[in-house]
Structure formats: C-alpha cells, structure tokens
Design goal:
The chain has 137 residues and is an alpha/beta fold. Helix content is 35%, strand content 18%. The longest helix is centred in the C-terminal third of the chain and has 24 residues, at 109-132.
Amino acid sequence: DAETSYDGILGFSEGASAAASLILRQSAQGYAKPFKFAFFFCGPPPLDYQDKGVILADESGARINIPTAHIVGSRDPGYLGSLALYNLCDERLAGLYNHGKDHTIPWDPQSTGSIAKELRLTIQRSSESASEISGPL
C-alpha cells in the first residue's frame, strides 16, 4: 500500500497504549495510515496528548480503524483497561484473545498457538480491509 509506511506495530502494556496513542494522534492530524495493523498485548487505553487523560470509547468519537489484535489476560490487574483499548477499535477489524493469565505473554503451547492464530487473522484482515474499508483512521 503506497500510503502505509510500515506493515504493523506491536506494543506490550504501556507500549500498546503508546502505539494506540500514536495511531490516533496521526489520524487526528490528517496523516495517512502509518500501519496496516496493530498488535496490542495487555494494553491500557491510549492517552490524549492534549488533555493528558485516557481516551475511552464512550467518551470520545476517536476510533482505530485498522485491523487490531488484542491479547489480554483476565487475571491481569489492567484487564479492564485492555478491554477499553479493544472498545476503541473498529469491531469489524478487531480480534480479541483472552489467555486467562496475568500481565504477561504466556509461552505454553496452547496459548502461543492461539495467539499466533489471532495475529495471523489480523494480518489477513489487513489484506482484506485494504480494498474494502477506506477513510480516516
């Protein structure tokens, strides 16, 4: 895609929040989509650089309109924050996998297989959405 500089971005924890903040900020400033997809692991919601608060779906019109994978753990103290980040994303393009553990990327065979499947589906959605979904981030 000529408008996209990078294939994807991956962030864990605050790195996921920073990645989401970057995507939303560039969209608000009218930049072309910088990424084809995003992988968010245990990520809290992004920050609004102007008022320093978090961006929440029910308080903002901001949306991330690229394919996203959200890898979360229901025992993570930040679990609800991870769901808040998921809710900021286009539901047609967002995938969610709950590994059921805490604030970690699990390495057991079942979890890694399921995570890999979700990441592959997100990449597939990015190929499909390039022609089907247009407009601002």
